[in-house]
Design brief:
alpha+beta, Immunoglobulin-like, 2 domains, three-stranded antiparallel sheet, elongated, signal, nitrate transmembrane transporter activity, cell membrane, High-affinity nitrate transporter
Length: 203
């Protein structure tokens, strides 16, 4: 009898430990598909336009979608905007892959802005394309957040109408010119020595 009770106690303890190891609903990631697409997001960057990292800027604006009922954004306390890789720049690149779980998403890697949400008027921000943004096609996504900072709604520009960013390669024009000059010089020097050696052999 005592042995049976010990076995039962061990089973209960194992069950409690297993339950404790499972992630709680609060700790689970927020899924994009579960959020209402309640924000209208627009940008000054035109589809196909090329912006140069570290040089050019764009303006992004957001507001409550006109189809949402009045006061639908009463719980929105903040907004955060991200620069996201468009599908064309995700292809064959797992490190840029979109994920429905926002905490695991790799497409929206670049922070544009994070600020308080103002319901009275559309929000706007001028973003200078950061120097570390690599070449690729991009779109913009905005999240509305609640008082705890959790995402509660979103909106985005069309991923299929993306704009392009020309990243900084680290090679300046002066270096390219110098490399070209040295390459030409090496070819001329090689030809010169070839002629000298040929004349020596003939003599």
């Amino acid at each position: 009898m005592a042995r049976q009770q010990s076995v039962q106690a061990l089973c209960v303890l194992a069950a409690l430990l297993f339950a404790a190891s499972l992630p709680s609903p609060a700790a689970a990631g927020v899924h994009l598909s579960s959020l209402p697409k309640a924000l209208d997001v627009t940008t000054s960057a035109k589809p196909g336009q090329v912006l140069h990292a570290g040089v050019d800027s764009l303006t992004v604006t957001w507001s409550l979608n006109a189809t949402e009922p009045a006061g639908a954004d009463a719980g929105y306390k903040g907004v955060k905007v991200k620069l996201c890789y468009a599908p064309a720049s995700q292809k064959d690149r797992g490190w840029r892959k979109s994920e429905d779980d926002i905490s695991k998403d790799k497409a929206c890697q670049f922070k544009v802005t994070e600020q308080a949400y103002a319901a009275a008027a559309p929000g706007s921000f001028q973003y200078a394309v950061a120097r570390d943004v690599p070449s690729g096609s991009y779109y913009l996504r905005a999240f509305a957040t609640d008082a705890s900072g959790a995402e509660v709604a979103y909106g985005q520009t069309a991923p299929t109408a993306a704009f392009d960013v020309a990243g900084i390669t680290g090679i300046h024009a002066s270096l390219k010119i110098a490399a070209g000059v040295f390459s030409a010089f090496s070819v001329v020097a090689l030809a010169f020595f070839f002629v000298i050696e040929t004349r020596k052999k003939n003599k």
